[in-house]
Amino acid sequence: MRKCIGAFVIFLFTALGSSAQDNWGGGVDDEVLHFGFTFQYVNSEFKVLKTPEWRTPFSTLYPQLQHDPSETILYDTLYSVSSSGSPGFGLGFVSNLRLGNNADLRFTPTLVFADRLAYYEYRYTGQVLEKKVQSSVIDLPLGIKIKSDRRKNFRAYLLAGAKYSMDIISKKKLDDENNIFSEKLLKNRKNYLSYEAGIGFDLYFEYFKLSPEIKFSQSFNDVLKHDVTPFASPVDKLYLRNIQFSLYFE
To answer: In what residue span(s) does the Outer membrane protein beta-barrel domain sit (predicted)?
Structure first.
């Protein structure tokens, strides 16, 4: 996927470099308000902050609960809790308000489908359990775009802002009431706020403008839903991080 993205970007720059004149770009830079759409590739992971007693077996932390002896992880000591990047994709719209020659206000509502992964490694049994957090999220980012002056068919920019996210995954997929402890789900909060920053390029073609962009975001607060489970109990705070590659067509 990364090689395809890199090859595509190189192709775009080559195509623009071969143009002998300035392209019109659909005239979007002359409009006070214009619209577009976006395709996104998203890589999501957690930043995990553990509790002081995170290694303590779940059965020791909660002796008042009934534990099945066959669920060995309840009696084992944790060796590590970690997360790794997981791919996803998004589709959305662009609303761009021109603030000046070198600044825009952008609102880019997007529907993102991305799983998040957490791993629990146990010391004595050697088990490694993967917990997948499925999500279908509506992102509502609002940001300021600071642009360089245009050079022929090219312009660079920086972007900074914040986004409000709402997970719209069905409650049925999150129902684990009848699951045994070792099969409980790791759950996230439905709504959270993140900060984000990125860099991108405006590439001008004759009838439209294309903007490849790379952006980093992280939730301001803990996104973990703190249930009494073997997977939520060792975690003090869980922050969500995204690295996002977007193509904007305007």
So the answer is: 86-224
